[in-house]
Amino acid sequence: MPNEFFQFKQFRIDQSDCAQKVSTDACLLGAVADLCDATRILDLGTGTGLLALMAAQRAPNAEIEAIEIDLAAAAQAAANVAASPWADRIRVHSLSLASYAAALPPSFSHIICNPPFFRRSLAPPDAARATARHAGEGSLTFGEIVAFAAAHLLPGGTLTVLLPPPEMQQFAQEAQSGRLAVRARLTVRHRPGGRVTRCICAFGGVGTAGTSEKSLIIQDVDGNYSTEFRELLAGFYLAL
Questions:
Q1: How many whole angstroms separate alpha carbon 206 and alpha carbon 12?
Q2: What percentage of the chain exceeds 70 in pLDDT?
Q3: Mean pLDDT, rounded, for 109-133
Q4: From CA 18, how far away is CA 128, in angstroms rounded?
Q5: Of 35, 30, 69, 72, which is closest to residue 50 (Cα–Cα)?
Q6: What pLDDT score does 210 carry?
Q7: Strands 180-189, 196-205: parallel, antiparallel or unpaired by DSSP?
Q8: 5-233 — its CATH code?
Q9: Given the DSSP bridges, would you call strands 153-163 and 196-205 parallel, antiparallel or unpaired?
């Protein structure tokens, strides 16, 4: 059974009321996203509030918005934010992306999202967990994310997304139709020689600078965190 809380170096995540718990995937996304010169950041589908809090730690001058459709998760995210050092810079909204867009929010320099992606696998019986992890009715769709980003990113702004490789290919196709192109791609493997399990891609407007390609291995051959992983998460994990 997952722990009801996860303690980071500068903040704590209580997660007992959230379907989607703290994961290595989300921590990597929060650490990898290029937030240089970020002024306004949006965390789409914030869950526990993890990505919003990591963004606040990494981008001290940014104002951060976080959206979560699940009422219990949104309440827990708001509590996690309130207990953090950055409560004055993060606002949690319990509503759908469509409702948030209808309120005509100001544009963002960066949008971060770890969207539902288990399209073909058997959905878990828990409805909240299904919404958090599985793309389907009631969940955030790739098309919605792309359309919102295309309409609400500042010029030169970035949308950063984490997905498995097949779903990232689908997302990139959706992004292309919304005139967003891949500007940076990080492929993630658990062990040396293993298959790519996740991709983290940064999307920007068509016509901006070319694509950079990097790779990351989480663990070395002995099962220890790799040097690259340690460097990325050193500001967050207590054990690093």
A1: 38
A2: 88
A3: 60
A4: 8
A5: 30
A6: 66
A7: antiparallel
A8: 3.40.50.150
A9: antiparallel
Q: State how far the alpha carbon of 105 is from the alpha carbons of 108, 109, 138, in Å.
A: 9, 13, 22
| Chain position carrying tokens 């792309």 | 146
**Residue in this structure with the two tokens 């990232």, named with its chain if needed:** 168
Tokens of 100: 């948030």
The distance in angstroms from the start CA to the end CA of the chain is: 23
**Unique residue bearing structure tokens 């005509």:** 104
User: pTM to 2 decimals?
Assistant: 0.89
The residues spanned by each domain of the chain are 5-233
Chain length of the chain: 240
Reported as a single tens digit per residue, the pLDDT across 128-173 is 444 444 344 457 899 999 999 999 999 999 999 999 999 999 999 9
pLDDT of residue 133: 42
